Structures are given as C-alpha cells and as structure tokens.
Amino acid sequence: MKLNLAQYRGKKICVALSGGRDSMALLHCLMLGAGQYKISVCAVNCDHKLRACSAEDSAFVKDFCNQAGVPIVCFEENCAALSKNRGVSVETAARDWRRECYLKAASMFGADAVATAHHMNDNAETVLFNLARGAALSGLTGICDGEITAQNKFEDGGSVKVIRPLIGCTREEIDEYVRVNGVPFVEDETNADDCYTRNYIRLNVLPRLEEAVPSATKSIFRFSRLAAEDEKYFAEEISRKKLIEPALCGVYVNFCEQKPLFMRAAVSALKYLNPLVKDYTAEQIERLYNLQFCGNGKKFYFLDFVAFKEDGKISVCLANCLNLLSDGQSDFNEYVLSQKNGFGGQYAAVCDVSALSATLEKAVKETVLSAEDIKILKFDCDKIPAGATIRFMRKGDRFQKFGGGCKNLGDYFTDKKIPLRLRGLVPLIALGSEIYAVCGVEISDKIKITDKTQRVGCILCADYARFK
Length: 468
Hints:
This protein has helices at residues 21-37, 54-68, 79-86, 90-109, 120-132, 171-181, 197-212, 216-240, 259-273, 282-291, 332-337, 356-366, 409-415, 420-423, and strands at 12-16, 40-47, 72-76, 113-115, 146-149, 159-163, 244-247, 250-254, 299-302, 305-310, 313-318, 329-331, 342-343, 346-352, 374-380, 389-391, 398-400, 406-408, 428-431, 434-438, 442-443, 456-462. By secondary structure, the protein is an alpha+beta fold.
C-alpha cells in the first residue's frame, strides 16, 4: 500500500477514525510518515448509536490514540432519534451529523483537512450504485476529495477540506498492509449483512465482476477519474459562460440550448441553494431544461425547490421563500419609533430625511446590500394614515401609482416586470387593502411630497428592479 504523503507535507490532518481496518490502516500510515513529511496527526470518532458494539469501538480507538499520543475527540449521538427530529432517513441524519462532527473537530484542532478512509473498492461500489440508479455522468465521478461548508443547521461555522488518501488503494492492498504491520482494528458486524444495498454490491456484485473481468475495480477507478475530469471541464465552461448567477431570492440559470451544459448548470444551481441535495432525478433536470421554451411565469415545483421561467433565464429558489405570503404584519410606527429595519427576512427601514445618510451607511454595513442595491423612496410622513402596517402582498390589494391611476397590485407588479418569485417578498406599507408604498419600488400618489409637506420621511429597501 503506497500513499503519496508528500502532498500533505506540513499539514495537520484529522483522521475520521471508526476503528475498522481501513481507518486504522490510514492512521497507522500517517503516523509512520509524520516525521518525514512533518505531518501533524489527530483524530475524530463518531458514535452514531446505531450498533450494539458502537460504544466499545469508540473506547477502542480512544485507548489506541491515547497510547499512541494522537489527540482525539469523540462525539456521540442517537442518530435514529435524530432522523425523526429532522424528518430525514437515518442514513441522511447520520451523514449530516458526521459532517457536523468533522467541522467541529477540525475547528478544535486547527486541522487543515479531515481524512476519511475511502478506498478504490468503495469508489467502485459508489459508481456501480449510482449507475444502477440512473445517474448521469456527474454521478459516476466516484469518491473525490471535497469540502464541507457549514450550513445554518450546523452548530459551528467555517469549512474544512475532506481528503481521501487511500482512494488509489484496493481493499486487498489495505488488508495486506494491516496484516504485515500488525495494525489492530475492530470489525463492524454490519459489514457482513448484505441486506444493505452497498453491502450487497461489496459482498456479491464486485467479487463476481472481478471474476468475470479481472482488475474491474481498477478500471472503474480510472473511468471515474476521467469522468471527474470531464465534469471539471463542464464546471469551467459554466463559470466562463456565466450560466449561474446568485439572485436576491435564489439563483439564476441563464438560457443555454447546449443541453449537457445547461443540465449540469441546473444541478449546480440546486447545490448552490442546498449543498446536500441529492434526490433530484434526470426527469426533473430535463423539465428545467424544457422550461426555457415555455412562456414567462411558467413554474415548476419539485423537491424543496421552485423554478420560474423569466426573460432569458430560469430562476430557482427554495420553495419556502414563497411561503412568506401570510397575514403577518408589523405596525408601521414601530419602524419610525424603534428603528426596526427588517420584515419577513427582507431589509426595510424608515427614517427622517435628516437621518438618511446615517441610515444608509448602517444598512450597507449590516446587510449584504450595497448602496447601489438600496432604493430610497421619499414620502410625506403626515400622509401615512394611523394604523398603517408593513406586510406582504395579499389578495385584493390596490395601489394608486405615483402620478395617478389605480391598479390591482398584481397587475402593477406585472407592469413593473417584478418576477413572480419576488412578489411575495416585497414589503408593503398598507392600511386594509390600500397600498401606500411598495418598498424598493414606488410610493403611492397619496403620500407624495408637495409644497405643503412639513415632514419628509425615507423608506430604504432592496431595489427589486435590480434583482429581476
């Protein structure tokens, strides 16, 4: 078993240590090369509480590391209960929690990377499994180095690289290394249970394939590396052609009739919104591609996403972004008196004209918006009726445009070319069904400034026209 440890020279590596032969072989190899390559080694152990012997396995790795002088941190979690709390499968809950542990451990140790013990046979299992499920080429890239980035549900922030030093080694090579070097390990009893799909592939499919086609595992590995290179090329093309652009609510996928390129861009857009997404189907991505050729405003709900056809692009956002249409509201006076500066996750602030510069400077400092992203609407403070609220769009809303002319708010949004995906996100100043200001867009003619105005107020909000 030969590893290219020179590429990790001078790094601090945290080994994901289960106690099985693969992870123990990885730790042993890194420890041997630590002096020569100035590698600092530490470890993290995750007890998912899914097996009767899991606590004993954790105790084993802890004792081994303590005797070897390897710093280790151990985490435990009832992942079966966690899956119910999060409403996901046990496998997904365990994987997400394990990633959280990796982030925490890397932060605690100041590690440059977390090393997992995935090897060439694991890679072959992954490729065959994805192929059997109907994956596209992107699903056949196998197991590669990657990065874990903290999501909102993670307790700690930051990100950490994940490396796979054993990915070029076969199971047989690892077994031989363990035997020759007398590396201690524990056996996971579930590895022999072929009721699990991956175990079935490992125990039944790959051995038969190797009998029929010698070195099949190595050939699959070479294919997966070529597929990864192809995917890297497509990613560079997506970037060069700027097919994906972040939006105020979601992400844009610009039109592209080159189907392979667009479909990869669409998948990248989904992962931009949710890095852990994996349950999308080829049919769903095909529908996103075909959405280019539908009428504007046509939408498509799938998984936790919704996609809209707009001018020159497909806009994709998380479906819960559209759930802001509600009866919730805030008293307008709270914004004037207490300087509240947000509603429903959207930036909205009200100030006296004399405080405009300070309010704008604060907005730029405390939000992701630039000064150019913020639209300032000036209005006559004394024309806002008592009882006015800030809320989102409701059925029956009416708006008297600046300069005259009354319109249904939905029709007004259409005239202003405000996309459907944004309409439920625009804060409104209203009393009943009468809209006095569409924040970030326009004030009503009813609150305009005249030569009789005594108090001028300012509404600061995201300029929604800039994010169409």
